[in-house]
Write a structure and sequence with these properties.
The structure holds 3 protein chains of 3 kinds.
Chain A lengths: L14 E6 L3 H10 L8 E6 L7 H9 L4 E6 L10 H18 L7 E5 L5 H18 L13
Parallel strand pairs in A: 1-2, 1-3, 3-4
Helix pairs in contact in A: 1-4
Chain B lengths: L1 H16 L5 E6 L8 E5 L7 E2 L12 H4 L6 E5 L1 H12 L8 E5 L8 H6 L5 E7 L2 E6 L2 E6 L6 H4 L11 E2 L17 H8 L2 H12 L7 H5 L27 H13 L8 H5 L7 H15 L26 H4 L3
Parallel strand pairs in B: 1-4, 4-5, 5-9
Antiparallel strand pairs in B: 1-2, 1-3, 6-7, 7-8
Chain C lengths: L3 E6 L3 H4 L4 H9 L4 E7 L5 H14 L3 E6 L2 H14 L7 E5 L1 H5 L5 H20 L8 E3 L3 E5 L3 H12 L3 E6 L13 E2 L4 E2 H14 L3 E5 L1 E9 L2 E8 L14 H5 L5 E2 L8 E2 L2 E2 L11 E2 L5 H5 L4 H5 L12 E7 L1 E4 L3 E3 L16 E3 H8 L20 E8 L16 H15 L4 E6 L9 H11 L3 E4 L2 E7 L2 E8 L4 E7 L1 E6 L1 E3 L3 H8 L26 E3 L9 H19 L3 E3 L5 E3 L9 H5 L5 E10 L2 E10 L9 H5 L5 E3 L4 H11 L2
Parallel strand pairs in C: 1-2, 1-3, 3-4, 6-7, 6-18, 7-10, 18-29, 20-27, 21-22, 21-27, 22-23
Antiparallel strand pairs in C: 5-30, 8-9, 11-12, 12-17, 13-14, 15-16, 19-28, 24-25, 25-26, 31-34, 32-33
The chains are: A alpha/beta, B alpha/beta, C alpha/beta.
Chain lengths: 149, 327, 661
């Protein structure tokens, strides 16, 4: 198979998932070892903790063409670093509210708490999120917030 | 205003003469009388100091670089400036032992663009006359209602009380009342009430005007990074030219996020924007959300309380609250 | 530019069945920086690892990407592999193409496409990897235990038995803590002194244990393995090296009107005193506030009495600074004084006592020599009412929100002891719930009810009044839905317990976190219950949350085990993926320190060269021995001065870019 053969032919939405190493990434691994399917267009980026997720990364993903961004972390109270996800929760709440205020579809952003034992939840969340993004279609707004020349 | 100015000059001379300070951070007239710009004075040029209805500029930011010498510098702080001052002290950006903060009264600063919008041009002078302003122009005298031409920040004044200061020019309780004639969150609420599409169009129109002159960043008392993350080659964000059309939007969203919980709502960003982008509406959105989600918070009210983004409670709302909010 | 080698694993058919590994190799070969790419059936096998090692040497690789199973599975394996071939172990990245690709995508085209993108993201990241080195820090092989109650004693004994030096700092003149004040212990009813005092003696006599009694922690500096602690020795006005604890001075002391703390103020002690007969160390101490000599310079009876010449009125505070590798917090608890619970008449009536006061009344060494009598008239009571949950499990501002946990059991114990000595006394217990989750606990409680005939009534006491020399108790019986008005000669309040008031300042010194009730927070509620989130700080006993003696001892030994594990090491290998601050960018705003759960960030004035200017700046400094690498600080830092090694801003953004290409 050649590279040019596997170029995108038709539009499939792209979803970037930031997962904390200790809970959600492990939850994704469990979904995998349980063979629970979710769409291939969900791409996971591993971070040590949800509190490592900088709003810059999320905006960068949208800027470069992501159609949905989801952040997953340990359940509040279960953070490996004890308090990281509490900070992440405030940051993401405010950031997502701001994106909504700017007229970006609020359904394109999401936070989910997924534990290392919740492989099934991880797959279900990704399936559901992918479906939502499919319905919304391509993310033009964030790329087009400035007028076309 | 004139009496206040006289009192002020007297006090400044006293502080310069008795050696409390050797410089004064104040306002200086620019090319036009309404171009009052922050400047540092010494005994030699102190008579150039200006204090009138155009002295909206927030002095506190300039102390970051000016208050670094052994000798103290005199900072003239209007009530709202003291919030920014506190925030800078809290973040160790201004060393209060190198500043003599003099609280000065303020009865509201005017926005020259609003005066011009009334058709008054060629302005040469301005004087308060009760609720009205007497404006001298090259075409003769004109007048307008003060509350019609106030700066956005003064429309929603935080009040006449200073929250910091080594000394008050006149006690806060004796200071003239400040005008406050608008609901601070009204415009944010209006935008929130719009449809997603309308909001998107509003911001597309506004942010498209940005020329990335960085005036907002330079004036903002919360933007005191030594090198902005957008100028730092190592950050992966700095670019000589825009990669995509999204670049300015990213800048403004991130800038608002970086000052969230630290922004005192001083409104300098919007005041200095040459493109008249209502940037303060981004900051106010964060303020409104913070107040609603985590309880009322006023940045700069003191120098010790942890900000809302560097603290949390276990019972904080979930991010899904954004989804659950009605259209 | 790195020279990157890409190694795609088949994992037998686990990956190869749904990912075209050959196509992945071909595609990734074309990525910038890739000089070698290959695939193999089992990359984690010895021959697979040799393949990687050989390629590193042959192609002079500077970075390695392994496309295989989850990094949680084999990241450590492959780090060792690349290290064995001379590369820095952190020049490796894993693309997870099994758990997050081949196992969940049935379509080979889909799986292959995704595997290529995941591989490309790992390549983009490794391009920006830099060698990381774990710092090591030496471990001082001595532990400090703050608090000399049963928790601190047990922890110290266990650590000392393992061969390490331990110092106990106790603010009172003797170790022993709350347990020394107890009469009997539930559910076995063995006497507290009989089981505690031998341990106190052991601690006092142990060659590896050093007692700092009548001392307080003044200052803590340093970090795990290297704490420096300043201890304040309060003046006893007694030369500890000379005092024999004979007690002759106590006999002679004319100032006899000071409420005796050990007996909860139910009797008085002298100005010079020994806290109790079994005190360790058994040394006298002068209460300066009560001593006549310190008031008017006269008296001096104790000086004349002491044959050892141990009295020294000129003693002053002393400060001792010592180094420790680990610190155990065992600051314990106090019972609240129910002074603002006016309905129980605690302030007005001597016959209303707290359970700890009752404990002293029942104790043979207590103020009544163990005779159960009413404090008001010294006569034996005919009926006693116990009130549970006083100040616990409440919602008002005078209440604690939590359950104090021990009250149900000690109340059952008190009731049983009363009935045991005096079957004729009528005993009633008012409760909200009776909580007996512990080994032999429920059996114990049932014995009180069934065997001893203690009346348990579900309901709270609303009011206690004093009339005709007796107490009138108004209460409601919730099960029978009736109001009760009964006489009682004594009312015993099971008042809530709360952390010792010194705990908060100790937590601040240790940068150890606390909850809103001032209990110390554990590093993980389930998995690390005896450690503080701050490395090197361990928790023992009630300072972490209410618990009874067996639980306290268990936790004390657990904390000791953790300390022993730490002190057994000569050096600590620090996490290599830690935060670091670029001092040319840092503006010293302190936001990062505010969110650091570990207290790893401090500020220093440093001479910084930036843009050709040399100036002194306040900048953040990360202590790599403490940083756990969560990254909370990096997002708080607006300038990007604070970054995380191994998960740097530009690395994560490179991954984002590669995925979104």
């Amino acid at each position: 198979m050649q590279v040019n053969e596997i170029e995108k032919k038709e539009y499939t939405p792209l979803i970037v998932a930031f997962c904390c190493n200790w809970c959600s990434y492990a939850g994704a691994d469990l979904a995998g070892s349980s063979r629970l399917n979710y769409p291939a267009n969900v791409k996971i980026i591993r971070v040590p903790c949800s509190c490592r997720v900088n709003p810059l990364f999320i905006l960068r993903a949208f800027q470069r063409g992501a159609d949905g961004v989801i952040m997953c972390g340990c359940h509040p109270g279960d953070c490996h670093y004890s308090t990281g996800n509490y900070y992440a929760r405030r940051r993401m709440t405010l950031l997502f509210s701001m994106l909504d205020y700017l007229g970006i579809e609020r359904a394109r952003t999401r936070v989910e708490w997924v534990s290392a034992a919740e492989g099934a939840k991880f797959a279900a969340v990704m399936n559901e999120f992918a479906e939502t993004i499919n319905r919304l279609g391509e993310n033009r707004k964030l790329r087009d917030l400035r007028c076309e020349k | 205003m004139r009496e206040i100015k006289e009192l002020l000059v007297q006090k400044i001379n006293e502080l310069l003469d008795n050696g409390t300070v050797d410089r004064v951070a104040g306002w200086k007239a620019g090319e036009f009388c309404y171009d009052a710009a922050p400047a540092v004075f010494t005994k030699e040029n102190i008579d150039e100091l200006l204090y009138n209805g155009f002295c909206g500029a927030n002095q506190s930011k300039f102390l970051v670089n000016a208050a670094t010498t052994e000798n103290r510098i005199l900072a003239l702080l209007k009530p709202c400036d003291t919030y920014s001052y506190n925030q800078l002290v809290k973040e160790h950006r201004v060393d209060p032992s190198r500043v003599y903060a003099l609280g000065i009264p303020c009865t509201g600063m005017v926005d020259v663009n609003k005066i011009k919008a009334l058709g008054i041009t060629g302005i040469t002078g301005i004087e308060e006359d009760g609720e009205n302003l007497k404006i001298a122009t090259i075409y003769g005298d004109a007048s307008c209602k003060k509350c019609d031409v106030l700066l956005e920040r003064c429309m929603v004044c935080k009040g006449k009380n200073h929250v910091a200061g080594d000394e008050m020019l006149i006690p806060d309780e004796e200071a003239p009342e400040t005008p406050s004639c608008a609901d601070r969150m009204a415009e944010v609420a209006r935008l929130e009430a719009m449809t997603e599409e309308e909001r998107f169009n509003f911001w597309r129109e506004q942010l498209s005007k940005c020329i990335r002159c960085n005036a907002c960043r330079n004036a903002c008392p919360a933007c005191t990074c030594r090198t902005c993350v957008f100028d730092n080659a190592k950050s992966g964000l700095a670019a000589k030219v825009n990669n995509t059309d999204f670049e300015e939007n990213m800048f403004h969203i991130i800038r608002a996020f970086h000052v969230a919980g630290r922004c005192t709502d001083c409104g300098e960003c919007s005041r200095v924007c040459p493109q008249n982008i209502p940037l303060h509406l981004l900051n106010r959105k964060f303020i409104k959300d913070i107040n609603e989600f985590y309880g009322e918070f006023q940045a700069g009210a003191d120098t010790t309380t942890k900000g809302p983004l560097t603290s949390f409670t276990k019972e904080d709302c979930e991010p899904s609250i954004v989804m659950e909010r009605g259209e | 530019m790195q020279k990157i080698g890409v190694f795609v694993c088949w994992c037998g058919s686990n990956i190869a069945a749904t990912v075209d590994v050959a196509a992945v190799v071909e595609a990734l070969k074309k990525q910038p920086g890739v000089v070698y790419a290959t695939d193999y059936q089992y990359m984690c096998s010895a021959s697979g690892q040799n393949l990687i090692k050989d390629a590193i040497k042959e192609y002079g690789l500077t970075g390695v990407v392994v496309c295989s199973c989850s990094p949680r599975m084999h990241e450590a394996t492959f780090r060792k592999t690349v290290q064995a071939a001379g590369l820095n172990p952190y020049m490796l990245e894993i693309a997870n193409i099994r758990e997050q690709c081949s196992w969940i995508h049935k379509d080979i085209k889909e799986g292959t496409e995704k595997a290529i993108i995941l591989g490309a993201a790992a390549i983009a990241k490794v391009q920006l990897n830099a060698p990381l080195y774990s710092q090591t820090s030496p471990v001082v092989k001595r532990a400090l235990v703050i608090g000399g109650g049963i928790a601190g004693i047990q922890t110290a004994l266990d650590i000392a038995d393992a061969g390490f030096e331990v110092d106990i700092v106790e603010k009172k003149p003797t170790i022993g803590g709350k347990m020394s004040q107890l009469d009997k212990t539930f559910p076995t009813l063995d006497c507290a002194a009989c089981i505690l005092t031998p341990k106190m003696v052991d601690a006092g006599a142990h060659e590896k244990i050093n007692l700092y009694t009548y001392c307080e922690v003044e200052k803590v500096e340093g970090f795990v393995g290297n704490f420096s602690v300043t201890i304040k020795q309060k003046p006893r006005y007694i030369d500890a090296t000379k005092c024999t604890g004979c007690g002759a001075c106590v006999e002679k002391c004319p100032s006899k009107k000071t409420p005796n703390e050990f007996n909860m103020g139910l009797d008085n002690r002298t100005a010079i005193y020994i806290p109790f007969a079994q005190a360790v160390p058994k040394l006298a101490v002068i209460d300066k506030d009560a001593c006549i000599h310190f008031k008017n310079g006269k008296c001096g009876l104790c000086v004349r009495t002491c044959e050892a010449g141990a009295i020294n009125y000129d003693q002053t505070e002393e400060f001792i600074t010592r180094e420790y590798g680990a610190i155990v917090v065992a600051t314990g608890f106090n019972q609240i004084k129910p002074t603002n619970f006016d309905e129980y008449l605690y302030n007005q009536s001597k016959d209303v006592v707290t359970s700890l006061e009752f404990e002293r009344i029942m104790n043979a060494a207590g103020p009544t020599k163990g005779h159960l009598v009413r404090p008001s008239n010294g006569k034996q009571p005919k009926n006693i009412v116990f009130v549970q949950c006083v100040g616990s499990r409440g919602t008002s501002c005078r209440d604690k929100s939590y359950c104090s946990k021990i009250c149900c059991m000690y109340t059952a114990k008190h009731a049983m002891l009363v009935k045991d000595h005096h079957p004729e006394i009528d005993v009633t217990v008012f409760y909200i719930d009776v909580r007996t989750p512990g080994k032999n606990f429920d059996e114990f409680y049932r014995r009180a009810v069934e065997q001893y005939g203690v009346h348990y009534i579900k309901g709270m006491v609303g009011k206690v009044e004093e009339a005709d020399g007796t107490l009138k108790v108004q209460a409601s019986d919730l099960l029978d839905n009736r109001q009760i008005l009964m006489d009682a000669d004594m009312v015993v309040l099971a008042a809530a317990i709360e952390p010792d008031p010194t705990a908060r300042s100790i937590a601040t010194m240790l940068t150890a976190s606390m909850d809103t009730n001032d209990f110390f927070t554990e590093a993980h509620a389930k998995l690390r219950p005896v450690e503080s989130p701050t490395a090197g700080i361990f928790l023992s006993g009630v300072c972490q949350g209410p618990k009874d003696i067996p639980e306290t001892v268990a936790q004390a030994s657990a904390a000791a085990a953790k300390v022993i594990g730490l002190l057994a090491k000569d050096h600590l290998l620090c996490n290599a993926c830690v935060a670091h601050s670029d001092e040319t960018l840092c503006n010293g705003c302190s936001q990062c320190a505010n969110v650091c759960a570990y207290g790893a960030i401090t500020y220093e004035d440093r001479l910084v060269m930036d843009k050709g200017v040399r100036e002194t700046r306040r900048v953040a400094v990360v202590n790599e021995a403490i940083c756990q690498g969560c990254g909370a600080c990096t997002v708080t830092c607006p300038s990007g001065a604070m970054d995380l090694r191994g998960f740097a801003n530009n690395q994560i953004m490179a991954e984002v870019d590669a995925i979104c290409k």
